[in-house]
Design goal:
By secondary structure, the chain is an alpha+beta fold. Helices cover 33% and strands 25% of the residues. The protein contains 29 helices and 31 strands. Strands 14-13-15-16-11-12-17 form a seven-stranded mixed β-sheet. Strands 5-6-7-10-9-8 form a six-stranded antiparallel β-barrel.
Length: 839
């Protein structure tokens, strides 16, 4: 539609259904009576044009922000996404048949990249005339970062050379368009056109290299046959991806092209976009995998039974593995991943295969007894739920785990380089698929369970407030796991590290006694875990602690004293740094100076001597390549969003972002104010002007204490708002004064749109393993040394990784919202003010 007619778009819409009716002219006079006669004539011609039958097929693949599928109408095949299909069918009803009006309406849906770009340009023009708006937009831009698909990049069969020369393209109807080549390989060609193309994907085109005909003896009568495989648009320029048509071989041209590329690839430079993409992808994986808080468990399917086979342990998720070890260090993950829970996950739709499991342990007669219950298992009876959550949360061993299940295929273990085999034998060897022996070990793997510890201090304190009838405690045996059940037959596969390990807590379940230094009263209890160097200790007491925060206490380990007579562990000095509301769970820290020396020295020795189970074995893998294969499969199936941060000056800036497969809520939130292929993380840095912003100051804490840091973020999300600061209202849970404020925030969020809760975990990154990247870095260096240096500089600047786990449903349950409320909150539609909640 021309600019002159855009002002009459509403009138044209009203006239469309009447275009084929006898009274069309009369209706036009009625509704456009105020329009000048000459303009009225133009409106009539435009409506008539839109009503003309159209023979063009629609192919929106690569042109819209949506998944396109095949759609057949009256024998003609189109490719459209759901939004376009709705628009197509709506306009067919308006015109009564397939017309130019239908075609153009489908090309102008709100998710069309061209239209989105036009809106951005209009926004930019507006910002130039409004300094304040420009300033706010600039702030927003610095938190937009590209998304990276881990270990997912293009591998080429032949080297592609950057090469610009005039070409002319002909189809079978002898229609032609002139364009310019972008790059060329033995098998393919990319051409750019300055105007719309009438060529169709899949058809054979004959290419004449007009810019070479004066220098080389090329056939001027017959073009080179190529198949059109893709059409894309960037900055109003059309790009055609073409592949040599094997049905029309031309050995003479093949030989010419091979010699031409070999002789000129240093002059014109090899196109390395896919190799640079591969380096970025592999680098991101190296920073992500070794520090991900999620424990991946690989699952076989044997006779319709889901059988966990392998677990991939890293520096952070090992805490989850250790939690599910009994007193004999047997793995009890089968208590968590029961067959019933795995089947429950499998029966859910692929987008929401997730459950939350609550657990605690009971220590008696030097034996560990495990109890666990999934949210759905507890929801069946309110009294039992309150008893389990209220009683279990009063124990130091209280944990909340999120479990997701995703599909996987063994072939994802193969990660070739981005470089073609033809470059050399070394490359060809690196591109060789895994051995048949290794693949036979993986062949039955079909699913990947991700287990993430999402326990929070405020969450545990909230469950502490649940009142329950103590008579119901006897029924909790329903959730107890029999000790006579066989242990998990899961093989633990570990990452290999080159650099200093990040430290975490170690399970230590043994009897303790606690005495206040100014009191002879002794309280018995159980230790839960210790932190690095024995500086921290977490214990659960059988009676209330009568002292204060920062008070000194003496802790004794009678059972440890029996097995370690060379140490005195009956008078260790600690300071209380945290206690829960019931004062039965204490977090202790060894006192500084000589007084705390005994505790520090003993636990350093204890950890050192028992750390062998956590270290990577020096011995060779039973099947070479198993660890790398599982790591690659896991990286390609991440289920939650993570992003890397680099240090720039004194600040940490977000970089590459990894989007999870089953993370729809967080994905929608982060992509709401970003272009395709990006996320906008500004809302996570909204506290940047405060004295202690979480992500900025948190990284310093992690680096100083060498342990991961956790926080919960509550978000009110309303997609109807166009201003990002109004659409996304974040608040860290620790900033609320009490649960009354937290509940009020949640209610308001659910009323205006959607409530989202994120368990935010912060870790530092390790060093990149250059042995996995060197081949591709060397390849880039050969043709573009400056780019290789730029990549390496960016690689070494990475300092931290942040992991975002969606815990919305668990938080809503925690604060007393019903299952109906939880279900209603999953939808993203803005709700009318005053919408009722059952809470």
């Amino acid at each position: 539609m021309s600019q002159d007619l855009k002002q009459y778009a509403a009138i044209i819409e009203q006239l469309k259904p009447m275009v084929n009716e006898p009274e069309f002219n009369q209706v036009l006079l009625q509704i456009a009576s105020d329009v000048p006669k000459e303009k009225r004539f133009l409106i009539k011609m435009e409506v008539k044009r839109l009503a003309k039958p159209c023979m063009r097929t629609i192919d929106l693949r690569g042109h819209v922000d949506g998944k396109c599928k095949k759609y057949v109408h009256e024998g003609r095949t189109h490719y459209m996404d759901d939004i376009a299909v709705d628009k197509f069918e709506e306009q067919i009803r308006v015109f009564g048949r397939y017309t130019y009006g239908v075609y153009e309406a489908v090309q102008n849906t709100e998710n069309n990249f061209r239209l989105m770009r036009e809106k951005e340009l209009a926004q930019e023009r507006q910002e130039r005339s409004n300094p304040e708006l420009k300033k706010r937009s600039a702030i927003l831009e610095q938190f937009k970062v590209p998304t990276v698909n881990l270990l997912d990049y293009r591998q080429r069969n032949a080297e592609r050379m950057n090469f610009a020369v005039a070409v002319e393209l002909f189809n079978d109807q002898n229609e032609s368009i002139r364009g310019l080549s972008v790059d060329i390989s033995l098998e393919g060609l990319q051409v750019k056109l300055s105007k719309d193309t009438f060529f169709k994907k899949g058809e054979t085109l004959h290419i004449f290299f007009r810019g070479l005909e004066t220098e080389y003896a090329l056939d001027k009568k017959n073009g080179i046959a190529y198949k059109l495989v893709k059409i894309s648009t960037k900055n109003d320029v059309n790009y055609l991806a073409l592949q040599r048509d094997s049905n029309h071989p031309n050995p003479a041209f093949d030989k010419f092209l091979e010699n031409f590329i070999h002789g000129n690839k240093r002059r014109y430079k090899v196109n390395m976009s896919n190799t640079i993409e591969a380096i970025t992808s592999k680098t991101s994986e190296q920073f992500f995998s070794p520090r991900s808080p999620t424990l991946p468990v690989f699952i076989d399917v044997i006779s319709n039974t889901l059988v966990p086979r392998f677990a991939m342990a890293n520096e952070v998720n090992r805490e989850t593995l250790e939690y599910w070890q009994d007193e004999d260090d047997n793995c009890r993950l089968n208590f968590l991943l029961t067959q019933e829970r795995l089947n429950q996950l499998l029966n859910k739709s692929e987008e929401v295969r997730e459950i939350f499991v609550f657990s605690f342990t009971h220590f008696q007669n030097e034996k560990v007894y495990f109890y666990s219950a999934a949210m759905e298992e507890l929801a069946q009876k309110d009294a039992l739920m309150r008893a389990f959550l209220g009683f279990g949360s009063k124990k130091a061993s209280w944990r909340v785990f999120k479990i997701t299940l995703t599909d996987m295929v063994p072939e994802q273990a193969h990660i070739p380089t981005s470089i073609p085999d033809s470059v050399g034998n070394k490359i060809k060897k690196l591109n060789t698929p895994p051995s048949a022996r290794l693949m036979s070990k993986l062949k039955n793997l079909q699913f990947l369970a991700h287990i993430t510890d999402v326990t929070s201090v405020t969450g545990q304190e909230t469950y502490n407030e649940f009142t329950f009838n103590r008579d119901n405690l006897s029924h909790l045996r329903l959730f107890g796991h029999p000790r006579n059940r066989a242990t998990s037959n899961i093989e633990i596969v570990r990452f290999k590290y080159d650099e200093k390990r990040i430290e975490s807590r170690y399970q230590l379940r043994t009897q303790v006694t606690l005495r206040l230094n100014d009191d002879e009263t002794v309280i018995n209890g159980i230790s839960e875990d210790i932190s690095v160097h024995g500086l921290g200790l977490r214990i659960e007491l059988k009676r209330e602690y009568k002292g204060n925060l920062e008070g000194r206490v003496e802790v004794a380990f009678p059972k440890l004293q029996e097995i370690a007579p060379s140490f005195n562990v009956m008078h260790l000095q600690y300071e209380v740094i945290y206690h829960n509301a019931d004062k039965n769970i204490l977090h202790l820290k060894a006192v500084s100076g000589d007084a705390g020396k005994g505790a520090r020295y003993f636990f350093e020795e204890l950890i050192k001597k028992n750390k062998s189970s956590l270290k990577v074995e020096d011995t060779e893998e039973e099947i070479p390549g198993m660890g790398q294969a599982l790591r690659c499969i896991n990286a390609r199936n991440a289920t939650s969003l993570s992003f890397l941060m680099s240090k720039e000056g004194v600040r940490y800036v977000p970089q590459a972002c990894i989007i999870g497969k089953q993370d729809e809520r967080v994905t929608t939130l982060t992509t709401q104010f970003a272009e395709q292929g990006q996320v906008n993380l500004e809302f996570l840095f909204r506290d940047r002007k405060q004295e202690s912003p979480f992500l900025q100051s948190g990284i310093k804490v992690v680096k100083h204490e060498n342990t991961p840091l956790r926080e919960e973020l509550f978000i009110s999300f309303d997609t109807a708002q166009k201003d990002p600061r109004m659409a996304i209202i974040p608040r860290y849970s620790s900033k609320f004064e009490d649960n009354k404020q937290r509940k009020a925030f949640i209610r308001e969020a659910m009323t205006r749109g959607q409530f989202i809760a994120i368990h935010l975990m912060l870790t530092t990154t390790g060093k990149p393993d250059l042995s996995m990247l060197q081949t591709e870095i060397n390849y880039v260096t050969m043709y573009a040394m400056h780019k290789a240096k730029e990549l390496e500089k960016k690689m070494w600047s990475m300092a931290a990784c942040s992991h975002l786990i969606d815990v919305t449903d668990e938080v809503l349950l925690r604060y007393g919202f019903s299952l109906d409320d939880i279900t209603a909150n999953k939808t993203l539609e803005s709700k009318p003010k005053g919408a009722l909640l059952t809470q």
